[in-house]
Design goal:
The protein is mainly α and about 250 residues long. The protein has helices at about 1-20, 25-35, 40-65, 70-95, 100-115, 120-125, 135-150, 155-165, 170-195, 205-220, 225-250.
Length: about 250
């Protein structure tokens, strides 16, 4: 019972994070399953992506009635780049260490945190773009590969990419990010299942917690001021980056 309760808590916390800041929750699911559940890293990554399917679906459905619904045109464009490339990450995870990709991911997060905190979306809304559209698509391919490799839906990078590349408001970017994360996690989790992941029967409690948490996260997000959310998300990005650097290099 204690183990089931622990898995449920991991699911709820990851789901809240998903709905609140537009990530799939893998930043919570993967370390939670490794350190609290005692799962091997590859199984934790695969399980995270399966759970993210349900948490992102829950958040996306809830977003349909929120003040900031999904921009499906932008979601479709990014999904065409991000979702198929997640299979690159699945392949890499089977044949090589993750440290190099994790360090690259962390450095990209740090680089994007400052312009996101300064309000890149406001500048773009006035007509300028900080990142050209072709580079956004190329970056999306990289996000997909990283997502498949480390079990993170990719929202931590998709939100600033949409803010800086499309001029999307932060809250709309969060909603749209969840839709992209949904498609990406579907493809990546299918890749892991096809290559041997077989612990699906252990996931229902995590999935249930993630669904509940995602709905709570989206409900908590709407009343928040956009400036506060933008700054909070930038801080969140730096924290995630430092955690990934520590995991890859053990420098803290």
């Amino acid at each position: 019972m204690l183990q089931l309760l622990l898995l449920a808590v991991i699911g709820v916390v990851g789901g809240i994070l998903s709905g609140l800041v537009g990530v799939g929750g893998g930043i919570i699911f993967v370390p939670g399953l490794i350190y609290a559940g005692g799962w091997p890293i590859q199984e934790a990554v695969a399980a995270s992506l399966v759970i993210i399917v349900f948490s992102a679906l829950s958040g996306t459905i809830r977003n349909a009635s929120s003040e900031n619904p999904v921009d499906w045109r932008k979601a479709g464009l990014l999904s065409l780049a991000v979702a198929p490339s997640s299979l690159i990450g699945v392949y890499i995870s089977r044949v090589s260490p993750e440290a190099v990709v994790e360090v690259t991911f962390a450095l990209i997060l740090i680089a994007l945190a400052y312009p996101t905190a300064r309000g890149g979306g406001s500048a773009l809304a006035r007509g300028g773009r900080s990142i050209p559209l072709p580079l956004v698509v190329v970056a999306g391919i990289g996000v997909g590969a990283i997502s498949g490799l480390v079990g993170i839906g990719g929202g931590v990078m998709l939100v600033p990419l949409m803010v800086l590349g499309f001029g999307t408001g932060v809250k709309t970017a969060v909603s749209t990010s969840l839709a992209v994360v949904l498609f990406t996690s579907l493809v990546a989790s299918a890749g892991y299942i096809f290559t041997g992941f077989d612990r699906l029967l252990e996931l229902p409690v995590l999935v249930a917690g993630a669904i509940v948490g995602a709905w709570l996260g989206v409900r908590l997000r709407d009343p928040l001021p956009e400036n506060g959310l933008r700054i909070g998300f930038a801080i969140f990005m730096v924290i995630v980056a430092l955690r990934l650097l520590n995991r890859a290099l053990g420098i803290f």
